[in-house]
Amino acid sequence: MCRWIAYSGTPVLLSHVLFEPQHNLIDQSLRSRMGVETTNGDGFGIGWYTQDLTTPAILRDVGPAWNNRNLQEVAHHVRSGLFFAHIRATTGTAVQQTNCHPFRRDRWLWMHNGAISEFHRLKRELALAVDPALYSDIEGSTDSELMFFLALTFGLTEDPPGAVARMAGLVEETGHRHGVQHPLQMTVAVADGERLWAFRYSSEGSSRSLFYSTRLDALRALHSDAAFLRGIGDETRLVVSEPLGDLPGSWNEVPESSYGIVQPGGDALHAFQPRS
C-alpha cells in the first residue's frame, strides 16, 4: 500500500510539511506505523498548484523518497497553498515513473492508497468502461490510474463525489461478477486547484487509515506555545494517511465510508456509498 498527504490552506514551502513534522512523509516512507508495509520505497510523487499556472505541476520518480535530491531541492524552493505528496508501495504493478502518484489531467490531481482486489482479472473489463476519448491518455498500468480515468468518465469534473461513487460501484459490481468478495479498498484524494475531496471506503468495511487536521483556531487554544501554528490561516487543513506527529488534539480519524470537502468558506463531511 502507500502513504499520502494532501494540504490546503496558507501557501507554505512544501518542505515545511514534507520534512519538518515529527512523523513526516519521509519518516513514513521508512517507518510507517499504520500501513500494510513498514517501508514505502517504490517511488514517490508531488503535485502542486500555484497562482501562475492553470494546471498543477508534478514531480515523480521511481526511487525512494528518503534519498532523492530533486525532491529536497524542489520542496525547499516551491511554495503552494494546495499540494499532494505520495509515497508508493506497489501492490503488484511495475515500479516505473508512470505508475507513481499523483496522476494529473488538465487541472485535476488524483492519488490513492489501497487496491482493487484481483486487479489482473478485472482490469480488461474495467478498462473497456473508460471513455474512448480518454483511454489513450492512460500512461501506466496501475489500478489507481484506471480508477482516476473511470471517475473522469463518470463526470469527475462536474460532480466529484458522484463520479467517485459510480467508479466504486462499477469496481464492486465487476468484482462480484468475477467472484471477488471484497473488490475495493481505497483512500483517495482529488483536487481541482480550489477544492480538495478525500474519500475513505472499502468493500469489507475496514478501510486504510485516514485522518484530517483539527481547525487551527482550536489547535492554537490547545497549544498556544506551538510556534509553527502562528503563521498559518484558520482554514488550513491537512488530510493524511498517518498523523504527522503526536500533538494532542491535532488529528481526527475520517469516519468509515465517508468523504470530506475542503474548500474556501467551510469544510463538510458526508457519508459515502458506491452507486450503480
From TrEMBL:
Keywords, in A-Z order: Glutamine amidotransferase, Transferase
SUPFAM superfamilies hit by this protein: N-terminal nucleophile aminohydrolases (Ntn hydrolases)
Single GO molecular function: transferase activity
Entry annotated with the keyword Transferase: yes
One Pfam short name: GATase_4
All copies of domain Glutamine amidotransferase type-2, residue ranges: 2-276
Signal sequence bounds: none
Name under which the protein is recorded: Class II glutamine amidotransferase
